Fold each of these.
Amino acid sequence: MNPTRADQIGPLDMFKIGIGPSSSHTVGPMIAALEFRKYALTKLSESVPTNDLRLKVELFGSLSATGRGHATDGAVCAGLIGLHPKSAEPEEIWAAMPALQAQPIVQLGQHRARFLPAEDILWQGWFLDDGPLPHPNTIRFRLLNADKIVTEEIILSVGGGFVEPVDISTGMRRLPQASDVQKCVPYPFNSAAEFVEQCKRNGIPLWQLVIENEAAKGMDEATLRKNLSDILRTFDKCIEAGLRTDGILPGGLNVKRRAKALYELMKAGKAPGWSGSDLRPSVFAMAVNEENAAGGRVVTAPTNGSSGLIPAVWRTLQETNNLSDEVLQNGLMVASVIGALVKTHASISGAEVGCQGEVGTSCAMAAAGATAMLGGTPSQIENAAEIGIEHHLGMTCDPIMGLVQVPCIERNAMGAVKALNATMLSLASDGEHLVSLDRALEVMKQTGLDMNQKYKETATGGLALG
Ligand code: SF4
């Protein structure tokens, strides 16, 4: 389904357990390949000869410009052989491409299709059949019998691991279909003003609104909380892995992992006093983003590039304020509402709006969740999210060599600190403020539209030029 209202996007849509290094360039393409595999299986009939089938995958736009650095090719291979980013182990996922390169066969039911990654993944440009791309992250999958197309699909990776199929006859983004019926929810909202109003009118906290809405969509509270608990455990495991690992990150940029050494410095009480003596938000964020850069197990929050910020804020507050698992889950529900609003009214894709849509969104989500966990009112939550967005407006996406390392890793550390600052500022006020979150999202969208393409995850501008 292509959600067109924020209340249709739940916490488990925003927080997806997957693999690094990118949600739009790794997780999304892997899910897209898996979707195409399922689609192709339904289209293959007994009458199709089995001896001359071939798969082709074309990567367009930003996927082509930075896909090698983001391991898009490896992710596509894993999806084509039927692996899912949540259930498959990272080692299994990264073994798929070498295995296909050695033996270029994808088994599709009883059919065998040839697929040699080095030849059959095509790195294309910014046009689709001489027309504009429907999205900067466009993929075309084709199953051919000799030169004849058996079936094909165009799928967009629109950020945060979300994918959308395209109407193949027009090459344009598919409009909502009758099957995309919006689910009726007891507390509808499609703006920040509306969620604040719903909470105030009904006298319920924002996370309770999410619980009731998700229940109406078919997920009871116990199941929702169990899934959120799994997400919190994945956050923790990822932080722990990052804190005990050092060395050089893969990809050729020779970026050194720093979280472990910083953590040891902090534990030894050697962090400089003028830093506030608490390096935790920065260190935890960097630990996660280093794991992400290494292709490890991470959670979209809302993307992989911005996956460190929320775990860092949650872990810091858990340690400083002794927050319970239930409160941490409540915080995730609140954060997801902000992510859903950004996704619906602006974008969480660096290729569409720059890093304001990734780290900016994550900062707003973290600030809102933290404010809720520390007892803030709905107005203060909205205020915290707005502060988080406002001070990231215009931030570009220019990863060096297309790797999610520089500036991404430090950017999460900076975002985590800003999120806690936004939380303090909102909790110290009454929630009244000049620029609404809804207005900030309009500005974010327009800023993204105005932003030069070279600053939108193409590795052709800014820091990426060295
Ligand atoms: S610069 Fe920001 S948007 Fe771009 S890849 Fe890095 S984290 Fe993602």
Note: The two ends are 40 Å apart (CA to CA).
Amino acid sequence: MLQMDFITLFPDMISALLGESIIARGAKRGHLCVRTHQIRDFTQNKQKQVDDYPYGGGQGMVMMADPLFRCHEYVRETHGPGHTILLSPQGRVFRQSRAKELAEIPHLIFVCGRYEGVDERFIEACVDEEISLGDFVMTGGEIAACAVADATARLIPGVLAEEASFEDESHWSGLLEYPQYTRPEVWNGLSVPQVLLSGNHAGIREWRREQSEKRTREKRPDMLG
Ligand SMILES: C[S@@+](CC[C@H](N)C(=O)[O-])C[C@H]1O[C@@H](n2cnc3c(N)ncnc32)[C@H](O)[C@@H]1O
């Protein structure tokens, strides 16, 4: 069972992305637990203000440390200490290898930034790791948090309907997956490669391995070092 808590100003975004399909079914079957926490509920001012101007001047607003800290404390006290991840364009870029490692941790706490980011003192006090989705800047951390959560959650045993062969999937072993085909056998004059219809399992395995290497060379030569 993987527990995932999301600290966010937009809980509905998390529910919309993780409340459907495979992840929702994984939660229903008891393999996953997804909880969202509204940061505004942990403010101590009437306006429920969560951001303020940056010291030293500059554009935009910064998320205040205190509501984030209170929300984080609530999660830890109520659901136990977890591994706290801040989604940030300054973090280490997320990869399948990190998803595998995160799937071994029973409780993940995702902190979703907004505005110009988060008061550094909260990061120093509470964050174990910063993860980036890539070298670009989004308006908030919710999409990145859901991407990390989704990639991690599907590795939890029982979440996928069939015992999936993760080993064949792109990025598992440093290669991209081979091409896939489904019915019909001929579509728009294009046939499925003959070997896949042959029933020769060793031949199919060999063809897929060659195709994986070929397409990794063509599409992502950087992965081959
Ligand atoms: C507009 S961004 C803040 C960027 C910040 N001013 C900087 O330059 O590093 C607002 C929030 O979106 C999220 N975010 C933006 N880009 C991201 C990325 N590439 N990966 C993960 N989270 C990202 C973070 O949570 C961030 O706090």
Note: The chain has two domains: 2-153, 166-224.
